[in-house]
Write a structure and sequence with these properties.
Helix 9 crosses helix 10 (222-249). The protein is mostly helical. The protein has helices spanning 9-18, 22-45, 51-59, 75-104, 110-147, 160-177, 180-189, 195-200, 202-216, 222-249, 253-260, and strands spanning 67-69, 157-159.
Length: 261
C-alpha cells in the first residue's frame, strides 16, 4: 500500500505565490507596456523645445553645398516627429528595459537572471558606441561621397524626410552591428555555435567584413573602409571570446545528469 508523502505547506505556498494566471499575466503586461509608452511619450516631448537646435545638429554631417528642403507642407513636422520618437525611445530605454526585465525575470533561473542583468547594461553601452561611431565616422564619409558624386553643375538638395530616414537607418544598422558579440554569446549559450567553429570561419568572416565595410562606406578611400572594417573585426573577435566563456560556464549535460542521479 502506497504511503502518502507529507506536503510542506511553506513550499506549497511559495509555489502558489509564484504561479500567475493568464489574466494576471495579461494585466501585468498591459501595465508595464503602459509605463513604457508613457515614458517614451514624455521623453519625446522634451525634444520639441529644442527643434531648431536638433535640426542644426542633424545637418552637421552634410557639406556646405548640400541643403535640406521641405517638399510637402507636413514634411518638416512629421520628420521631426520621427526624430523626437526615436530620441524618446533612446532616452526612455532604461525604463523600458527595466519593465521588460521585471516582467521576464520571475520565469528565469538564478544563473539566467545574472546573465540577463549583466548583459543589458553592456548591450546598451555597445549600441551607444555603435551609434556614436556611425555618426562621427561612417555617416560623414558616406554622405560626403554620395552627395559629392553628382557633377558640379547639379545642385544637391535633399528632402528632410529622406535625409532623416537615411540617417536613422544608418544609426540603427551600425548600432545593431555592434551587438554582434552578444548575439554570438547567446548562440554559443544555446550550443548553436562554438568558439572553435568561429575560429575556423575567421578567414571567411574577414572577407564578409571587408565587403560589408565597402557597402557601408561606398568611398574609394581604403583608409575609410579600414576604419570601419577594423572595429567590425574586433567585434567578431570579442564574440569569439564570449563564445568561449559561454561554453566554459555551461556544464556538460552528462555531468548534470550524473549529479542529479
Amino acid at each position: 500500500m502506497a504511503t502518502s508523502q507529507p506536503i510542506d505547506p511553506s513550499a506549497q505556498n511559495q509555489r502558489d505565490e509564484g504561479m500567475m494566471t493568464l489574466r494576471e499575466h495579461l494585466v501585468e503586461f498591459r501595465w508595464r507596456l503602459t509605463i513604457s509608452v508613457v515614458a517614451i511619450l514624455v521623453c519625446s516631448l522634451t525634444f520639441w523645445p529644442f527643434k531648431d537646435f536638433i535640426f542644426d545638429i542633424l545637418q552637421s554631417p552634410l557639406g556646405q553645398d548640400v541643403h535640406l528642403q521641405q517638399i510637402e507642407p507636413t514634411e518638416a513636422f512629421f520628420s521631426f516627429f520621427k526624430v523626437a520618437v526615436l530620441g524618446g525611445i533612446g532616452i526612455a530605454s532604461p525604463v523600458v528595459l527595466y519593465q521588460i526585465m521585471a516582467y521576464v525575470s520571475p520565469g528565469l533561473y538564478p544563473n539566467e537572471k545574472r546573465i540577463f542583468y549583466a548583459s543589458i547594461p553592456a548591450m546598451l553601452a555597445m549600441f551607444f558606441i555603435g551609434v556614436m561611431f556611425c555618426w562621427f565616422v561612417i555617416l560623414r564619409f558616406t554622405l560626403n561621397f554620395l552627395t559629392g558624386f553628382a557633377p558640379e553643375d547639379i545642385n544637391t538638395e535633399l528632402s528632410i524626410d529622406s535625409y532623416v530616414s537615411f540617417v536613422a537607418r544608418m544609426l540603427l544598422v551600425v548600432g545593431l552591428v555592434f551587438e554582434t558579440p552578444f548575439a554570438i554569446f547567446l548562440l554559443a549559450k544555446f550550443r548553436i555555435v562554438s568558439a572553435q567553429r568561429l575560429k575556423g570561419f575567421r578567414r571567411y568572416a574577414i572577407v564578409v567584413i571587408v565587403i560589408l565595410a565597402a557597402v557601408i562606406t561606398p568611398t574609394p578611400d581604403p583608409f575609410t573602409q579600414m576604419a570601419v572594417a577594423i572595429p567590425m573585426y574586433a567585434l567578431y573577435e570579442l564574440g569569439v571570446l564570449l563564445a568561449g566563456l559561454a561554453r566554459t560556464e555551461a556544464p556538460p549535460a552528462s555531468s548534470e545528469s550524473t549529479s542529479s542521479s
